[in-house]
Q: What sequence folds into this?
């Protein structure tokens, strides 16, 4: 079994930590960033979260689901992460630190199961998601997913 190292991404967004936080947790921004997927969350430790949208058959399905581990607005958002039918969740941690004219956004995705089949999709997906969020918050619009 291959060990999956943590994924870590750092972006700087020209917005306050409060605005960046809203970008991560608001249903409106999630709909824009994730092409219409609905972000459903109880933002309390132990609360459930999911990004839900139409499946291949048109019926609603969870693209990603998990449990909130930490929710400290506008600083830290940490949750378990299971994509599609994967039953072995990993962990995503989003940390926001104010800078002079921007917010430093650090995403660490770790605690992967050996040979997790969603690792590659997350390694590719996080930079796309963060780029779309950055563009949305800085310009008011974003680009379509690939």
A:
């Amino acid at each position: 079994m291959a060990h999956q190292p943590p994924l870590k991404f750092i972006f700087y967004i020209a917005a306050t930590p409060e605005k960046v936080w809203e970008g991560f947790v608001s249903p409106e921004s999630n709909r824009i960033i994730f092409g219409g997927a609905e972000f459903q969350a109880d933002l309390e430790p132990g609360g459930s979260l999911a990004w839900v949208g139409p499946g291949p058959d048109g019926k609603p399905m969870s693209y990603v689901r998990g449990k909130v581990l930490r929710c400290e607005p506008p600083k830290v958002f940490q949750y378990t992460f299971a994509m599609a039918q994967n039953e072995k969740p990993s962990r995503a941690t989003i940390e926001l630190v104010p800078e002079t004219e921007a917010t430093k956004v650090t995403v660490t995705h770790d605690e992967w199961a050996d040979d997790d089949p969603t690792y590659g999709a997350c390694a590719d997906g996080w930079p796309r998601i963060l780029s779309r969020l950055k563009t949305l918050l800085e310009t008011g619009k974003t680009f379509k997913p690939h």
About this structure: The CA atoms of residues 16 and 36 lie 25 Å apart. The radius of gyration is 15 Å.
